[in-house]
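My main concern about presentation is that the manuscript never shows what a single data entry looks like. In essence, backbone conformation is discretised, so a fold becomes a row of integers matching the chain in length. An entry of this sort, consisting of the sequence and the corresponding backbone structure tokens, reads as follows:
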Amino acid sequence: MRIEEEVFARHKLIPDRLIAYGFTQVNDCLTWSRELPDEDLKIVVEYDGAINGRIIDLSLNEEYTAFRVEGTTGYSAQIRQKYIKLLTDIQDHCCKKQYFKMPQAQRIGDYILEAYGSAPEFLWPNIPSYAAFRQPGKKKWFAVMGSVPLSKVDREVKSAQPVEVINVKVDQDRIKDYLSQTGIYEAFHMNKQCWVSIILDDTLPDEAVQGMIDDSYGSIQG
């Protein structure tokens, strides 16, 4: 993974904040640059919907790339750390947290944070897009949300298109009623007797999803 992708993962850059930070419009992108103190190098960062950066060796007037080698040591490692530090400062000043990609998934994530003070926890390295929501200070999670291939949830389709789903706990006696509703499916990677998966593509309105989250949260109390 590129350094820029790592630094800005799960963050959304806000153009107005970039301009306030010092980026200027050059053709179709926003550009910012800074010379490194005590180094004959200049960092150039550009944003055109995606963030990209490079380091220019001013003495040679060519791009310096050795810092991009993961595990590099010595001088290149020092330059790498300085580059990451500057990118992180841009992230701190110019980004909004964006844990999920689909608009409804982002709205639902915001609702959980606002309603319950629970931020997504990315607990599983082998499925890095999957996050658990837990009552603060508790171990049990009341929702799990992340990206999965559509066919893993809707068994009637063969598409591998990624979709974001939320798993919530429901009343076991009502699970057949839930599964009869469009947009609700048997739980992916959870106990199918008391959990369901909801595809967050606006098939089910926010209010309905929020109500099911509220019920799931209530089920872990005590």
